[in-house]
Task: structure prediction
Amino acid sequence: MSERLADHGGLPSEGLLKLYETWGKGGAGLLITGNAMIDARCKTEPENIVIDEPESLDKFRAWAEIAQQDGAQLWMQINHPGRQMPKTVAAEAQAPSPVIVKGLGPLLAKPRAMTEEEILTAIEKFAKGALVAKESGFAGVQIHGAHGYLVSQFLSPISNQRQDRWGGSLENRMRFLIEIVRSIREKVGPKFPIGLKLNSADFQKGGFTKDESIAVIEALNSESIDLLEISGGTYERTEMWRNMHEKSAPSTRAREAYFLEYAEQVREKAKMPLLLTGGLRSVEGINATLDSGAVDLVGMARPFLINPNIASDFLDRKQSSVSDPNLSVGIKTADSLIQITWYAMQIERLAKGLAPNPKLSRLSAFFRGLKTSLPIFQKRTASPKPKASASTVS
Result:
């Protein structure tokens, strides 16, 4: 659901505003943006929004205003890619350790271990980014601590092989996240909501485990997290959601929610509200998930690209379920590329004021994805250098 709709310099574009105007009218109580980059030099995609020392907050204020004018809250998801940065952005990527992403090494920048100074700078940039969101009128922020991005990389013993105070034991591996939370809270004050998206596990041998995830949540109970979103997986397991659903028991598939079993275990430990996203496609499934008592909120993503008014239609009983289009061609790597690109093309349509097109072909999505993913088709984009000080944010 990364929008990839930034203007030059990482500012929100008119297309992004149109997209969120549409989603803001769709009936959701809370909208969480695609990841906004806290460092102008480090992006998951060249067209990402960047909140690193913006010269003006006007475009961000317009984004917050237009998305929230019909009653929804808009929270900005803030992120750093770490080693999951394409070569089209830069040749070298900051990471906890110089460990490449298996299977994607040729497409991604070469990772190198961050220095102590770079780690502290990243923590400060998360905090400054959260302040940009607050002063722009966003209702909250969400730290992206899942899916193998930088926060997730520090948590995982696969990607974090450091021997200093930032690696080794789980206490050390979670230090980066804890310091980000504390630094943000210091910047934004006691009342501005801070959320976190956290992996239930990496689903990799030797990676971040379910028990470790629960231990991190227990540690966060004494920090100021206002909403915890449960997710899972990394770039190295891009097929995880599909496989989990297809290989699970019929009773689990009927419940729709991929991480509900984990959420039920977390509920006993977590003191903060829980948000569950992943797999929900029907009113019945949503109500069953909420009635379980394991979570306080449920989320959907891709259904909003099939029907931008899905929340209103569910609430008003105009629609009882939504089906994902069959985009599979039976080849795992191609299927992943098609899925991502097909939905990205729907985002582009909404940004132009057009309705979603469920008849977009898998073939066109595949070749479009191939062209935008492979470095041979692209020139490296120059990232603006961050300024030494901010003139608009205190």
